[in-house]
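Why show two proteins at once? Because comparison is the fastest way to build intuition. When a single record is shown, students tend to memorize it. When two are placed side by side, the eye starts asking what differs. So, the first record is below.
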Amino acid sequence: MPPSAYLMSAVQMTSTADRARNLDTAVRLVNEAADLGAKLIGLPENFAFMGPEDARLAGAETLEGPTLGTLREVARRRGVYVLAGSIAEKVDAPGKTANTSALIADDGSIVAAYRKIHLFDVQIPDGARYAESEVVVPGDRVVIAPTPLGRIGLSVCYDLRFPELYRKLAALGAEVIAIPSAFTLFTGKDHWEVLVRARAVENLAYVLAPAQVGRHSSSRQTFGNAMIVDPWGVVLARCPDGEGVCVAPFKRDRLERVRQELPALKHRKL
């Protein structure tokens, strides 16, 4: 049986083009969360690298590569589950990668990998242009990971705007939904929290939403506000500005009570 309660942690980072620094920061913050008692610790999207596109492609790795290898060792040593928010995964497509989130178990094994389905192709009014589909191969599979902590549904950042993905995760039994992100400052200030809370309310699930924050380069700035939300849409914890962690409990009795009192998942028609 899954535990009746455990602590989750959402990590907030300011990743840059310095891979070594990013990985050191990720490991430090995972350890910080583990020290606080967290058993499920989520890193944000692109935690290992946020920099020039040519360098991102050149540094792409497989799931067996050194970046996840380092996190797998930390997970094993600390006895925690680590959500490696996303990395640029090497794939058989010239000039492209996958944007892949991996869930690492407390024994260091990779128990699930999700490749981002919805790619961020947007020209926003602050002048920034994003064309993720030019350099990323989209995924085509909805992924849920049954674990001793509960059933964890995986997604990444821009997926947040597509509720049909989360409805599918709920139909597959998701109890915790992970949304590691690097939301732009322009969109995040208005949309991030309302969308994260909506996904929790709609699907009567906990949401673990790690985030990038701050200035990553001269042309990239993210909103931050990493948070953990309960199935009623209550924000249980959030990160202030800057790098750090927030921690909040997953309570199975809370999840079951909310789903019993508001059995909306059983009332779906379409």
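Second record. Ask yourself what differs from the first in the token line.
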Amino acid sequence: MGKAEGRPARLSVGVVGAGRVGPALAAALRMAGHRPVAASGVSEASRRRAAALLPDVPLMEPAAVLAKADLVLLTVPDDTLPGLVKGLAETGAVRPGQLLVHTSGRYGTAVLDPALRAGALPLALHPVMTFSGTPVDVQRLAGCSFGVTAPGELRLAAEALVIEMGGEPEWIEEAARPLYHAALAIGANHLVTLVAQSMDLLRASGVTEPGRMLGPLLGAALDNALRSGDTALTGPVARGDAGTVAAHLDELRAHAPETVASYVAMARATADRALANGMLKPEFAEALLGALADGAGRADGGTP
């Protein structure tokens, strides 16, 4: 692949898996001067996304996409990726010199080994962003970090592609990919669950606009956490207010028993971090942990 000053040559781009990610990345590459030429998608939703983000780009079978494209984005679920790569390589769909890019956070480039043996150039470019499947996703790529894993000789090309999509490349070693992905899942996926639980409980307590109430609070909490880490902790667990925590658990058992386990788990994790950094005094920690153990025992129907 030719390049000048680290910038990839203009490439024909294919997308295998027109989910929420692939069309957005292909649209960003189009804005950088590359040429999306083909996509694959089965569901009606994927066809709608392709139509919205990649108008006039034909939909076809994955093997046909590879036949038309110099750069192929494999944007399929993690569990599907190994079988897809193996199948494409075994059927001869992969061409020597073809850039094969997957966007999985879990995997590095080893998952692309079957394609590598067929002559492909393997890249793992994982955008650290949540996608909606709408055109706004392309705008959100501006300044978005990408977890990048590639062979040393392709590192500059991988980083250049990320920059062209508006992102910021962050090098992740192959062996570190699962840990890296776990960290992102804890931060992003679990955050959505916690916020949804909080909104449900606020509605149950009579708040008509829980999103409006939570927005400033959670925005400030996120900003403080990103700036200050554990020292941003506030609330009854960090203070060691065992009575307040016990009252919370009583209310949750009465009104939303399905949330007790997650409350206890997160409160224990919070207590551990508050103890470690000196915010939670040991003399308060015993009563607090006792309240959490009591709450967990009652939720399980056992004897606390």
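One difference worth noting in the second protein: Confidence is low (pLDDT under 50) at residues 1-6.
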